[in-house]
Amino acid sequence: MSGHSKWATIKRQKAVVDAKKGATYAKMAREIIVATKLGGSDPNANFRLRDAITRAKAEGVPNDNIQRAIEKGAGSGGSDQMEELTYEGYGPGGVAIMVRCATDNRNRTAGDIRSYFSKYGGNMGETGCVNWMFKERGEITLPHPLKLSEDDTLLAALEAGAEDVENEADDFTLVLCQPALLENVSANLTKAGLVFTSAETAMAPLSTVEISDRDAAKQLLKLLDVLENHDDVQTVYTNFEMDQALMQELMAG
Question: Which of 3.30.70.980, 3.40.640.10, 3.40.309.10, 3.40.50.2300 would CATH assign to domain 83-131+207-252?
Fold first, then answer.
């Protein structure tokens, strides 16, 4: 399993057992605020908001919190000037990293992200410095056990307009599609009887970097961890490959 995929798996597993629910709630609220600001407060007419609400509920975010976030995004629940920003840079071993944030203070967020890169052997660069190493795609997460067999799931996904299906992890399957088709494919999967926990655009690496040096691997995982745990960070994308046993050992330690 590739490092970036394994990292995504660990993030999903961590989210389930993370005791810091307050931080999780805050991240979900920021996503809802941004989605509302960009597409309006009606989930039926705003696919990104609808998906954000679905993921928030899956994380156990109370309905009152969700409603307050929608109100803030619509401008009736406060004056938060939330905006979505992406920072790019290189981690230890030359690993490309993209960090998507939702923040009400870009100077604070940029300063924090830059300091993390510097502290853990990386370097934050200018906009576009690593973006070209990734391809945007739609990702729909199907939780296990699947409602259909693997073969029937693949067939249903392709008939729904998807490009491919990835079964890299034990607890979820990814349905991949063109970003512009994400809403239609999601709707068609639902019609086929499949249940998904998220449907979002993501950045997939076009090529990967193998990290085998133990020190570089340790620094990289520390950098990714502090980035993920920052309140303003929504998603981190990388292009590394790492031996699964080494990754699990370092993260356990």
Answer: 3.30.70.980
